[in-house]
Each structure stands twice: as structure tokens, then as C-alpha cells.
Task: structure prediction
Amino acid sequence: MTSAPGGSPKVVALMPTWKAAGFVRETLESLAAQQYANLEVLISDDASPDATASICADFATRHEGFRLFRQPRNLGWIGNVNWLLAHARGDYFFFAFHDDPLEPQYVASLVAALESNPRAVLAFTDIRLGPHVESYRDLDGVHDRVERARRFIAKRGRWWIPNRGLFRAAAAERVGGVRRHLAGEYSADWPWLLHLALLGDFVRVPAPLIRKVWRNDGVSVSWGRSLWKSSAVLLSCMREVRRARLPIREEAIVQGELVGYGLRASFGALAGRVARATARTSSR
Result:
């Protein structure tokens, strides 16, 4: 542990930035306003072509605990995130996405949730998405890792919300970072979170302590979707399950759930194509 003299665990915010000059200040201010003393903020700017790095550098000079690193070349989102994971030193980490501001009690609330549950590897909150509060409740109170994986694989609702949570540094080390796959970076948070879910409980703090902002030029928006990309992510999930080194029976169950998900997704995509082709034919 790297606790402060007062006994609080050290938390490191991992902030990957790129072309965020128009909005990064709000997120930086929300990190500076956190009601938790033992917090370090590592910012890695991914060779932004705009003023992002200079804005972050100016902020870091005026706020203790903020450190900026400028990448000499563009690493991509996964490369930048993994660079931060490799250089962070602390007890708990979280991804401080450059366009998602936090409420002041965000870090303190999630530290308390993890400190009170040694079986948990990740704690997350509800989020504000536009005028609405969104929650991911599928893993509430689920302590069995196979059942946790089964529910997470189903991808019901806002399954990606936990990626905006606080996780144990030791768990991140076991997973080994976020991995690229055959389709590049597309939905790489799904295999990452699935592996974490196999390591321990996910705890939801039922309060909207983060605001998710969708941007037309955001990384996830630019990915696009296709059956090929979904299949590549599914294969990545299967590799993460293998890396988790489960007992043979448990691994077989989880891999079977992934195969079932893939089949349902393929049939759904095929049915959609048939429906669209039928509609085009009937409209002629």
C-alpha cells in the first residue's frame, strides 16, 4: 500500500488526452475539486495537434499533484491508456476521461466502497447522460464470478458504465492492461472489464457522480460498428477468459456464454440485413 500519513490509500487518476482543448479545462477543474487528499493526476497527452498539452501544462503548474507527460508521437487511445497504467504508482486507479467531469465526492465515495469490500476489484457510480441518470445494476450483489461474467456478457443496458470506476492497481496488473485486437481499439473496454469481473466483485455506488458527454468527434463514436468488429472483440473476450486462468469447468461455462452471445449477434445481424433487403425490394 502507498497510503498517506493519515492512512488514506493513494489514488491515481489516469487522464489520456487528445484534441481536447475545447473542453478539457472543465474536467481538470473537477479533478482539482475532489474531496480526497491522497490523489495524484497523471495526464498523458497523445501528441495533440491543438492546445491541449499547453492547457494541461498550465493547469499542472498551478495545482499540486498534477503531472503532465507529452507523448512524442501518437500512441492511439489504447497505447496512451497503457502508458499511463505502466507509469502509475498507487493503490487505486481510475480512467479520468478528458470529457467526463466528476462530482467532488467521486473519488472519496469509491475509495470508501472498495475499502469496505475486500472482495471487490472495482467500484463505480451512476452517471448523468444529458438530462437523465443512468445506472448499470446487473452486477449488484453478485459474488459468484461465473454468474457475474454471464450477466456482463449479456451486455444489457449501459454495460460500459463501470469503465468509469475506480479499480485496484493489483487487479489492473493481473489483467495486464487494455489490449488491441483484430479490429484495433473498437470496444476494447468490454474484454478489459470482463477480465476484471472474473477477478472480483463490482460495487455500484447509487449516486450520479460523473457526467458522460457524447461528442461527435469522440473516440468511441469514430469506431463505427460491423459484424466483423464485433467478432474481433468476442475473440478478444475469449482470450481474456483464458488469461484469467479459471478452473476448467468455470472457463467452459464462460466461454460457452460468449459463443452463445456471438451466435445471437450473428443471427440478429443476418435478420437485419434480410429485413432491409426485403424493405428495399418492396419499395421498388
Observations:
- The longest strand covers residues 201-212.
